[in-house]
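cron nightly-structures :: item 1 of 1
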Amino acid sequence: MHIVSLRLWCLAVAISTLVALSTTVAYAEKRVALVIGNSDYQHVARLPNPQNDAASIAEALRQVGFDAVIEKNDLPFQLLNITLRDFAALADTADVALVFYAGHGMEVEKVNYLIPVDAALKSDRDVSYEAIQLDQVIQAVEGARRMRIVILDACRDNPFMQSIKRTGGTRSIGRGLSIVEPDQGNTLISFAAKAGTTADDGDAAHSPFTAALLAHLNSPGLEISKLFRLVRDQVLQETGYRQEPFTYGSLSSEDFYLIAPDQQAMAPPPDSHDGLVESGTSETSFDPRQLELAFWKSIENSNEASSFQSYLEQFPQGTFAILAKNKLAKLKEQPSVESSTGKSDWQAELAAMKEVKDRQPEYFAMATVPELAEAARFLPEAVAEGNAQAQYFLGYCYYHGGCGYEPNYAEASRLFITAAGQGNADAEASLGWLYMIGDGVVEEHPEGLKWLNRAADQGNVFAYNKLGYIHEEGMGVDQDYSKSAHFYQLAADQGDAGAKYSLGQLYNKGTGVPFDPQKSAIYLLEAGKGGIVQSKATVMSDEAADFLSTETRKAIQSELKKQGLYRGVVDGQFGPGTRQALKAYWGE
């Protein structure tokens, strides 16, 4: 096929797809997925298959046309929380949202939990502090407009059951997971094994459940309910009827397909020898034109020049390149907003945003402060002027989905890269963290560390905190608590409350620093006063004795006495008097 003919064919395909939108949503709808594989558990034996399962499921979802597939492995509690929070923002912009989780899960008192890799679960009470409720996962997909899917290969035999301490005589811990009934329609939740039973991890490269999913996910014209029935039948047969997958939820009468019945017609003609199909790949592999069309549909009504510039950078010879260039030219011709002095106001607005950031340096509230949404309207103008701070702020808006901007990790990373190239420390730190966790860029720890260290060299608090966390968790580096404490101290010295909480924990345990109850008490109290909810929860918890040493609890009471807020005995027992004094200290 000649190049000219191919371009005409591509254009015809795109036009025919747009015309067919009234009868099929195979290309118009936005689909996003989060895929998690937890294998390397720190306190129980390693699970061999979840990482393999997650990698293959992620690739299969890309091949069936998902616009964004976020793949994560071996998530500890904090990162699992962050990942679900960020995916929820992305799901709010999508028609279809899917979460696949492979790893350990458990049920306590009819509540289902996914278990992060750093969970110790010494007692049944620890589950609510160290594991993630399934409801939180369901909430992460509930913003999708058309279909919400949660797939859990998490019913494996639970090794924590052998060692977990029972603290309540009536507290139940079940085998497998418990029945779940989603509140929202068009929500489908699939378990690898029905409630109260366990699933095999398998001796092959994939668990039986994941293997069955992979066998059917890319089948054209397979309605979603039928797909999971076929998965059930295959797993039953392959496990000798020991394991029965089960699907919960309520779907409407509308058929839903991962690959529509007529979608095969969108593949290139079989006699094509134009070089688009790389050697060693199948002609039925994922068609990049699907991604281009999805990208275009997401921006075609935008009034932001940066959106069309981004399209042209990614698809310079794309089907809609001429339209994008025309739209970009029109937007650039529009007069900028001016103040009464006739000069652009973006410098003043930028200063206002920086003031907010400086008040809360690690996670400043720009994206959630309503009055700053107006200020953010000036960001594209400042970005066009090449202002690095504006590039960072606009990237922040895109990443968190604030100030009137929809979440867009790719656009956020592009802006961070541009600003970091100009030496902006905020952008360097944000870009470094994106490389560490793989949001909007390929996960690459050495690259992430490079940018975070550059930002830290400029005294950036966000970078200090992230480097502290990275060394504490051994994330792409050897675990080193002394380095972790060093970076947290640098951030705390600038008044950062989150770093003070982390230091309070380290001094309480004597990890990476000498055991020092007095310092631990002061840092935990100051962190709570600075608005760190986790610090308040740690100190005020009914199980504070499980988290804080007796010496640290006594030191907290002594500090409250110094402040004239506590008159009781310094015994480390947090009764009503201590709790009232804590609330007074925190101004509650």
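cron nightly-structures :: done
Residues 1-27, 264-286, 335-344, 360-371 have pLDDT under 50 and may be disordered.
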